[in-house]
Specification:
heterodimer; A: mainly alpha; two-stranded antiparallel ribbon; B: alpha+beta; Alpha-Beta Plaits; 3-stranded antiparallel beta sheet; two-stranded antiparallel sheet; 6 helices; elongated
């Protein structure tokens, strides 16, 4: 065999491949059951029962929905730009899945004499990577709306693009304040710092609030779902889509919601840290593998709480008007995040100077 | 301007205070309201598994009754068809032949008895018109059907099961609204 092939760590390759498969299938499964959860939560909030026919408690409803979407006729409008029309939903799905690569899902396993990190890639610019990929997500909406060759879709695409660009600014600035505290862009390091100290939401409550609002806007969730405002733009950028291409768009939204919940939990709520438990001591007492599983469960619990919050907000707050959306983004959130950044920087400098001016 | 009623409320158009303009307190209030609804009792009745009881005066599908010996009561006099304001009832009379006394109580009987459930308005006038207590309205309603023809109920759908041969089915089909022997 070629020496380069021998020198490669095949175990690592296998391990990462398995991890990627698991994480992608888990994200898809979670997205599936998010659709079920959304309908159930919508129902109980509106004093209804929600899906309860397919399986116990309607648990097989997502499968039935998926089957329905697959069975539907696939329509590509003749006036559309064919290539872009197909590319749009694929891109939306791709960017939604790609973000999960840098999120640390748990600490590490010690299996087969290997040290297995439960993170696909611990890149030292993790947050920048997330921002880059999330910004790509707007292309899914933009291309879909453009390729449909439909006035409403185009309007929705423009709305979506301008909204995401506006809110990304505030989001980025609120993250800068956090990064001044952490001194690192690696999500793994940020979680480890929170394990030893306190959760960053305590140091950055305003930053977290801004990040939360912007995450809603980035995911195109109510009250920021202007790009699919059904009563103004009849479904917006995915109006011309049918069958599984529509399914991809809808699915991408739910995957986005899952991933952004994971990112929020990681950045501000301690990630996979188990609350009120000294993780290192627990790991030494009960073994690293059990600890890693419990940590993953802990992160999952936090994510589920966030996802519930996303849905709860959706069924409470009505959609913003376009001018209100822009005013909130540019006149409120960006100045607020700038102030947050300046105050954080000032306090950090003061702290480094031992609280002397 | 004078208000038209004593309950009219003036709409306040004051500029919002800072607390209101913050928007978040308002959102929190709304979120608590929706959260409270999660624990509210759901008014939905799980229909096929659970049904709501009908009112005692509910008038549903017609039933052609039999007497205690299982003979059809109807004598095909046609009074129900005359009384019917929607003209939903059609019948054809036939004469009872010797040896059929155990089937029909009267000398004349309805060989064909049809009610068009799409025409019927469930007024109950047929029940009032019947001199033989042969037809009455029960507590069920006509189930959905795929064709119009399916809604024309003949004797096989309307006739009650034989109380001698199928006593259980008879008791079930009789219902609370059946005319009781005095």
């Amino acid at each position: 065999m070629h020496p380069i092939l021998l020198a490669m760590d095949w175990g690592l390759l296998l391990e990462k491949a398995v991890l990627i498969t698991i994480i992608i299938s888990v994200s898809l499964l979670v997205a599936m059951y998010e659709t079920w959860g959304e309908r159930k939560i919508a129902a109980v909030i509106q004093d209804r029962r929600g899906p309860n026919r397919a399986g116990p408690g309607g648990l097989f409803q997502p499968l039935a929905d998926g089957l329905k979407l697959f069975m539907k006729e696939e329509i590509i409008p003749t006036s559309s730009s064919r290539m872009l029309f197909v590319l749009g939903p694929g891109l939306a799905m791709l960017t939604a899945m790609m973000t999960s690569a840098v999120v640390p899902w748990s600490s590490h396993f010690d299996l087969f004499g290997r040290h297995i990190e439960l993170q696909i890639a611990d890149v030292n610019i993790g947050i920048l990577y997330i921002f880059g990929v999330v910004s790509m997500g707007v292309y899914g909406i933009m291309i879909g709306g453009w390729a449909s060759n439909n006035k409403f879709s185009l309007l929705a695409a423009i709305r979506g693009a301008s909204q995401i660009i506006s809110y990304e600014l505030a989001m980025g600035i609120s993250i800068i304040a956090l990064l001044m505290l952490t001194g690192s862009l690696s999500l793994k390091t940020i979680v480890e710092q929170q394990q030893h100290g306190v959760y960053y939401v305590l140091w950055q409550p305003l930053g977290f609030l801004i990040f939360l609002v912007c995450a809603f806007a980035e995911c195109n969730r109510t009250p920021f779902d202007l790009s699919e405002a059904e009563n103004e733009l009849n479904f917006g950028y995915h109006q011309e889509y049918s069958s599984m291409k529509l399914g991809f768009y809808l699915f991408a939204e739910y995957v986005n919601m899952f991933i952004s919940s994971a990112v929020m939990a990681t950045l501000y709520w301690g990630g996979y840290d188990i609350p009120f438990v000294n993780d290192t001591a627990f790991g030494q007492a009960h073994g690293q593998n059990l600890l890693a599983i419990l940590q993953a469960v802990s992160l999952f619990g936090k994510v589920i709480i966030f996802v519930f919050f996303f849905m709860w907000v959706r069924w409470t707050i009505p959609r913003f008007r376009y001018d209100q959306l822009m005013r909130l983004g540019w006149n409120v959130l960006i100045p607020l995040s700038l102030v947050n950044m300046l105050v954080t920087g000032f306090l950090i400098l003061l702290h480094q100077n031992n609280w002397h001016f | 301007m004078q208000a038209l009623t004593s309950r009219a409320k003036r709409v306040e158009r004051k500029p919002m205070t800072l607390w209101e303009r913050l928007y978040l307190p308002g959102i929190a209030k709304g979120m608590m309201i929706t959260f409270g609804h999660i624990f509210k009792r759901k008014p939905t009745v799980n229909y096929p598994e659970k049904t709501r009881p009908f009112s005692p005066v509910f008038r549903g599908l017609q039933v052609l009754n039999r007497d205690e010996e299982g003979r059809e009561r109807c004598t095909a006099c046609g009074l129900c068809a005359v009384a019917c304001p929607a003209e939903a009832i059609t019948m054809e009379a036939a004469e009872r032949l010797p040896g059929e006394e155990h089937l029909y109580r009267e000398e004349k009987y309805a060989a064909k008895y049809e009610i068009n459930m799409l025409r019927c308005i469930f007024c109950g006038l047929c029940e009032e018109a019947c001199p033989k207590d042969a037809v009455y309205l029960s507590e069920t309603f006509a189930p959905a059907n795929y064709t119009r023809k399916g809604f024309i109920y003949g004797k096989d759908e309307l006739l009650i099961p034989d109380p001698v041969k199928q006593p259980d089915e008879y008791a079930k089909a009789l219902g609370a609204r059946a005319p009781r022997p005095k």
